[in-house]
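Notes from the 1:1 (GR / supervisor)

We went over the backlog. Supervisor wanted to see one worked example end to end before approving the batch request, so GR pasted a single chain during the call. The sequence is below; no edits were made to it. Supervisor asked that the structure be written out right there so they could see what the output format looks like.
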Amino acid sequence: QVQLVESGGGSVQPGGSLRLSCAASGLTVSWYDMSWYRQGAGKERELVARISKGGGNTEYADSVKGRFTISRDNAKNTVYLQMNGLKPEDTAVYYCNADWQESYRLNYWGQGTQVTVSS
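Structure output shown during the call:
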């Protein structure tokens, strides 16, 4: 059974930092494209950052470039999102996603973790 368990969310003041973790079981994170998405209140879910399977190429939403960093620890089977310089507009529920597609597709979501940026 596949599980993606996010942790590390919380409340922080503008300019602060948080590190989100996505611990995976039932799959190997290096075999999947691993992503972080977020969904703010009344907004659509949007891609924040992605790290590709294998070589680990990364991509980021323009709104977080230079502030957020996605990384992967294969030994711990965990993906991280380091968030620096947080802004109120980063407030959202952050979700971990695993995606694998060849002749068929496998796609999994975590339960989400709340990040609130407020003074």
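Supervisor's comment: The chain has a mean pLDDT of 97.
Batch request approved.
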